[in-house]
Specification:
Blueprint: E1 4-14, E2 20-30, E3 34-38, H1 45-53, E4 60-65, E5 73-76, H2 88-97, H3 103-116, H4 132-144, E6 150-154, H5 162-179, E7 182-187, H6 190-196, E8 199-204, E9 209-215, H7 224-227, H8 230-254
Parallel strand pairs: 3-7, 3-8, 5-6, 6-7
Antiparallel strand pairs: 1-2, 1-4, 8-9
Helix pairs in contact: 2-3, 2-4, 3-4, 6-8
Length: about 260
């Protein structure tokens, strides 16, 4: 991995409601890594992701990019957010259409993105005809169609069944390996974060801040053998312990829940 793609320094974010969502966030994101943000609800994981994407601006601190400008970014939201009236091809075409790329010129990129997520035969299907997992694959293909240097995923598999979720985890790792894209992934799942990541960043809530970082030294690609290994169990134990400490920090500040 090379030097930082993006550096966050002393980031604070206060919303107009007065809520202090993030305070004192410092983070370097290295090229080629798979970084997971792990933490309890309301800890600022998604806010941090949106700050990196440029969807919102920090109240204080700086977001600095290696080349002085934000690179191409793909963003996958918690919901697939597909246009129900458009077929799979046109849903994936949307980012290119917004850049005034013709359908004919875009076809190769769209077909390549759909092939990456295993939906090459579904270009004419409509969202209503797809399973939840397939809809999320379309959303990922749409994020990949511009060949982003940085892929941001905000709890994309949280609503899916466990079997589909495990399969999509493997697909994301395969896509990352094929494209060499830097990935930041938001999750509530200790097991998912350890399986996917080269580094797990643990957040504590209110205000959101980083309380632990865990390097996952297991080699890529990851397989079911890793999930059954002692190393995986030990890393999950580390991440679970860090998450419990983060929850304890929240409760010590705001009072334990009844």
């Amino acid at each position: 991995m090379a030097g930082p793609v993006v550096t966050l320094r002393a980031i604070g974010k206060t919303f107009t409601s007065g809520t202090l969502a993030i305070d004192g966030l410092n983070l370097d994101v290295s090229e080629g890594e798979f970084l997971s943000f792990l933490g309890p609800s309301g800890c600022g994981k998604s806010t941090a992701l949106r700050l990196i994407a440029g969807l919102i601006e920090p109240t204080s601190g700086t977001v600095d990019w290696r080349d002085g400008a934000r690179p191409e970014i793909g963003f996958v939201f918690q919901e697939p957010t597909l246009m129900p009236w458009a077929n799979v091809f046109d849903n994936v075409y949307l980012p290119l259409r917004l850049r005034h790329v013709s359908r004919a010129d875009a076809r190769g990129q769209i077909e390549a993105a759909l092939s990456l997520v295993g939906l090459g035969d579904f270009t004419s299907a409509y969202p209503r005809e797809l399973s939840g997992g397939m809809k999320m694959r379309v959303s990922i293909a749409r994020a990949l169609v511009l060949k982003p240097a940085l892929l941001l995923l905000d709890e994309p598999f949280a609503a899916l069944d466990e079997i589909t979720r495990l399969k999509l985890n493997d697909d994301v790792l395969r896509i990352k390996a094929e494209l060499g894209t830097t990935v930041i992934f938001v999750t509530h799942s200790v097991y998912e974060s350890v399986y996917l990541s080269t580094r797990v960043v643990v957040f504590a809530a209110r205000p959101g801040r980083i309380v632990s970082m865990i390097d996952i030294a297991a080699p890529m690609p990851r397989t079911e053998a890793f999930r059954l290994s002692q190393d995986y169990a030990e890393y999950c134990g580390q991440a679970s312990g860090a998450l419990q400490r983060a929850i304890g920090l929240r409760d010590s500040v705001h009072g334990a829940l009844p």
